[in-house]
Amino acid sequence: MATLGALVLSGCGVVGVTFGEPEGPEHDWDLPPVTVADDGTPSTIHLYPDPWQGAHVGRTTDGRQFFLTTPFEPGGPTWVALYTFDADGALLDATIRDVDESAEEHDRATTSLLATLGDHENGPVALAPFEVEHDGRTFGLVRGDYDGVTVYTAEPGDYMAFYAPWDTGEYDT
């Protein structure tokens, strides 16, 4: 899939933007096939690097996968979150830092958290859905239902929405 983004239109209004695997350097990283449980839960959700919400996804030299992102609540707090996963996509650790809305603080937190990974490279990842609590809020790739369709959203902020097929890397914003 070579699509960076496509507008999703409803009537005359833009409903969201869909992002998928961008063109760029090829990786020889094999992602495991996605299996789906009877209740619709995928074993993993594939995510590919992109210039937007997927700017910091990849692997470390020791085989861990990572996803660094910026959860937020509209009109409320903002965080920088680094999630690390084992080679099979199971969550190992979540480091969540509260930041203000300034670009400088966001950049400092991003740089600092990425440095904790050691040597790493951006590339495709396969992550199992997960939830962690921080400051009384649920963070992670959280299951929901939208008009009868199973969806996993990056929370808090519902800023990335993944849906079947789970191996495309596509998400809506």
Give an overview of the whole structure.
Helices cover 8% and strands 44% of the residues. The protein has 173 residues and is mostly beta strands. The protein has one domain (43-167). The protein has a 5-stranded antiparallel sheet, with helices on one face. The protein has a 4-stranded antiparallel sheet with strand order 10-11-12-13, with no helix packed on it. Strands 1-2-14 form a 3-stranded antiparallel sheet, with no helix packed on it. The longest helix is centred in the middle third of the chain and has 13 residues, at 103-115. It is globular, with a radius of gyration of 16 Å. The two termini are 18 Å apart. The model is unreliable at 1-19 and 21-25 (pLDDT under 50).
Element order: H for helix, E for strand: EEEEEEEHEEEEEEE
Distance between the termini: 18 Å
Let me know the number of strands: 14
**How is the main sheet built?**
5 strands, antiparallel
Strand content: 35-45%
Number of domains: 1
> How are the strands ordered across the major sheet?
7-6-5-4-8
Mean pLDDT score? 85
Low-confidence spans: 1-19, 21-25
The general outline is: globular
Rg on CA atoms, Å: 16 Å
